[in-house]
Amino acid sequence: MGILAIMVLNKAGGLIYQRDFNEGLKKLSSNDYLVLAGTFHGVHAITSRVSPVPGSGGLEIMESEHFRMQCFQTLTGTKFLIFAQPHQPNIDVIVKRVYELYADYVMKNPFYQIEMPIRCEAFDRNLLAYIQPRQ
Amino acid sequence: MQRQDPLQSPFVPFSPNPSLQQGTPTATAPLKHSLTASQSSNLRYSSSRKSIYDRHLNRTQRSELSKSSFAFLFGEMVQYAQKRVSGIQDLEKKSATPSFVPTHVSPAGPRHLKSLSEAIHSLTPRRLNLHGYTIGQRLLELLLWRDGRSAKRETRILGILQFITTTLYRSIFNKPADALEKSRDNEDEYMLIDNDPMVSSYISIPKEMSQLNCAAFVAGIIEAVLDGCLFPSRVTAHSVPTEQFPGKTVFLIKFDESVLEREAVL
């Protein structure tokens, strides 16, 4: 499977976690990542409003020639963005597992301050251990 | 949940008699209050009017606890241990008491610490240790009681360490400890090794607090059990991360001289 990158956005649209899993990705400056996250947050809010279907949850999947992006929004408003290769199967399962890891290793860590950037070594380690063998 | 007025509260099993406690004297609540209070169900008294103290002690012997809820509770305990110091004065008052001096963390003592935050961090393991200590005292009693007639009073160092690595560890973590080693340098030191302590499996220590190991809580439990069996000692938790086990923890058990003297006689 080809997972390219994972991002986590807090409910205000701030980028709290970003990690690349593919060597070939173009590196952006940390400021650019923040802008990207903020822009996506805005677009997501707009799509949920302009949707013709009432009660829409907003943008979920975006597909392009080179990648496919899946967004998963939790009930609390935290967003998980997964960038994968175009025909990657079972992204739902991966998203769910990443959410689970987040709930375990970030939310149960007494040293993590909510809504702040994630700096949890155990989360990094377990995320990598989950993604790497599936690449 | 409504907090009860102390005058309204019924007699709580295992709590000391209020008339024996220091501080402002309170009138002992008349018995009829306990009848009215037990009508409604709360944490202490269920609707069947039986408190957890009325249950048989073996009832929870094999029952399991949710690891998630424990992780959240323990997280709060760690935060509580860190937050309790409100200022430098409070800290000094606490560290003036000999039992609070974290000699095992900073040999120079708290006075030589560079900043308040550093001082707080150095006190945290001691506090967690104290939390664990109170649990260990009760746990030892319970374990020996559950052993029934086969309960035995351990007199040798190896015997008590064996009890900790198997019986105690199995009863709290449902697995024995991973290794038990004797220190090569010091006669009075033993090392109990846990490759992945359950209490800190979800915890990542920030880099600036790398000395801290939240398994100090477990160290407190071990210390209480050793003290309770008349093996006065000091137990500290140290992180020894390896490639395979990033959370590997060594509990360093340092026995009091009196223990070694007695061991030599036996």
TrEMBL record, chain A:
Pfam families to which the protein is assigned, alphabetical: Sybindin
Main location (coarse class): endoplasmic reticulum
Keyword presence, Transport: yes
Superkingdom of source: Eukaryota
Location in or out of the cell: Endoplasmic reticulum; Golgi apparatus, cis-Golgi network; Golgi apparatus
UniProt similarity note: Belongs to the TRAPP small subunits family. TRAPPC4 subfamily.
Protein name: Trafficking protein particle complex subunit
Automatic annotation (TrEMBL), chain B:
Gene3D superfamilies in the cross-refs: Trafficking protein particle complex subunit 3 (3.30.1380.20)
Pfam families with a match to the protein in the record: TRAPP
Keyword Endoplasmic reticulum: yes
Residue ranges, compositional bias (Low complexity): 38-49
Polar residues compositional bias, start-end: 17-27
Subcellular location: Endoplasmic reticulum; Golgi apparatus, cis-Golgi network
Keywords (A to Z) from UniProt: Endoplasmic reticulum, ER-Golgi transport, Golgi apparatus, Transport
Main location: endoplasmic reticulum
Region (Disordered): 1-49
Similarity comment: family membership: Belongs to the TRAPP small subunits family. BET3 subfamily.
PANTHER family cross-referenced by the UniProt entry: 41-2 PROTEIN ANTIGEN-RELATED, TRAFFICKING PROTEIN PARTICLE COMPLEX SUBUNIT 5
Function according to Swiss-Prot or TrEMBL: Plays a key role in the late stages of endoplasmic reticulum to Golgi traffic.
Record note on quaternary structure: Part of the multisubunit TRAPP (transport protein particle) complex.
UniProt name for this protein: Trafficking protein particle complex subunit
Lineage: Eukaryota, Fungi, Dikarya, Ascomycota, Pezizomycotina
Protein's gene: trs31
